[in-house]
Design goal:
- The complex is a heterodimer of chains A (128) and B (141).
- Chain A has five helices and five strands.
- In chain A, α1 (12-25) crosses α5 (112-123) and α2 (38-45) runs parallel beside α3.
- In chain A, β4, α4 and β5 (104-107) form a beta-alpha-beta unit.
- Chain A has helices at residues 12-25, 38-45, 64-73, 91-99, 112-123, and strands spanning 3-8, 29-35, 52-55, 82-86, 104-107.
- Helices cover 41% and strands 20% of the residues of chain A.
- Chain A has a five-stranded parallel sheet, sandwiched between helices.
- With 128 residues, chain A is an alpha/beta fold.
- Chain B starts with 7 loop residues before the first strand and ends in a 12-residue tail after the last strand.
- Chain B is 25% helix and 30% strand.
- Chain B contains two helices and seven strands, in the order βββααββββ.
- In chain B, β2 and β3 (32-40) form a beta hairpin.
- Chain B has a single domain, classed as Chemotaxis protein chec (3-Layer(aba) Sandwich), CATH 3.40.1550.
- In chain B, α1 packs across α2.
- Chain B is an alpha+beta fold.
- Classes of the chains: A alpha/beta (128), B alpha+beta (141).
- The A-B interface holds A 10-14, 16-17, 20, 58, 60, 86-93, 96, 107-110 and B 1-2, 48, 51-53, 63, 66-67, 69-70, 73-74, 76-78, 80-81, 84-91, 93.
Chain lengths: 128, 141
């Protein structure tokens, strides 16, 4: 099965990198959407179905924390799992974001296999 | 993610010489402060090419800047995660503050680390803002 993923990050370079990493990792990707902030992400999610969201935290307009809150509050969107990709590796931040509804957390910098493993874990992809 | 390896750590005085991309960002937390990264232009271009999967010749200046900002973001985040491990910090969006002249000794933070990347120097520096009094004693009665 191939999956549809949304990448949310205010850095075009980072979005491009994450997309490339996912493609090169061998993860079964059918479609990859991009958003520059949480507001764009929500607008896209109301038009397109995705299987997983990858999101940065520090973004203008609507940041990653608020995006997680709004996803959790939305009847339709709360079932879409979100993975946070962030430079902050402190326990406080990770616990906080998981309590807001993030299903996974990847700290930058990361290895491609780490991101793939986290995607497969939250999507319940069987391990070979 | 960034395919570079520090060849050698250098003394603090050997900050980046020659054209360099300089990125600055601030952070809130306890303590708060500023972070600066200076990266030789040649190194910045090669790092950006690796990061984006492109040839250096096909890269535009803004793309190199974007990757330099992301690198600064990651270095600062990694440092703060270690030294403020029990707190929560927030990074500002990184800014490019210089693209050519390297004479930044006066403007650079006091706590720095310089490494040779093989294509030029990378210098990262951090300064913490010291509170003048504890939060509980701020208000005078």
């Amino acid at each position: 099965m191939a999956y549809r993923v949304l990448i949310t990050d205010d850095s075009p370079a980072m979005r491009s990198f994450v997309r490339r990493v996912i493609e090169l990792s061998g993860f079964e990707l059918s479609h990859c959407y991009e958003a520059g902030d949480g507001e764009e992400a929500l607008a896209l999610l109301r038009r397109e179905w995705v299987d997983a969201i990858l999101t940065d935290i520090n973004m203008p307009v609507l940041d990653g924390e608020e995006l997680l809150r709004r996803l959790a509050a939305d009847e339709m969107l709360r079932s879409v799992p979100a993975i946070v990709i962030s430079t902050d590796a402190t326990e406080n931040r990770i616990s906080r974001l998981l309590s807001l509804g993030a299903r996974g957390y990847v700290t930058k910098p990361f290895r491609p296999e780490t991101l793939r493993a986290e995607l497969e874990r939250i999507l319940g992809v069987p391990v070979d | 993610m960034f395919f570079i390896e520090a060849i050698t750590a250098l003394p603090p005085d050997d900050a980046a010489q020659g054209p360099a991309v300089v990125v600055a960002l601030e952070f809130d937390g306890d303590p708060a402060g500023v972070f600066r990264m200076s990266l030789a232009r040649a190194a910045a271009a090669l790092i950006a090419a690796d990061f984006l999967g492109e040839d250096t010749a096909s890269l535009a200046g803004p793309q190199v800047d974007e990757v330099a900002k992301e690198l600064a973001n990651m270095i600062c985040g990694a440092v703060l995660s270690r030294i403020e491990s029990s707190a929560t910090f927030r990074l500002s969006a990184p800014d490019i503050i210089a693209r050519s002249e390297p004479a930044l000794h006066g403007a650079f933070p006091r706590n720095t680390c310089t490494v040779e990347t093989g294509n030029g120097l990378l210098t990262a520096g951090i300064d913490m803002v010291t509170r003048t009094c504890s939060p509980t004693t701020r208000s005078a009665s």
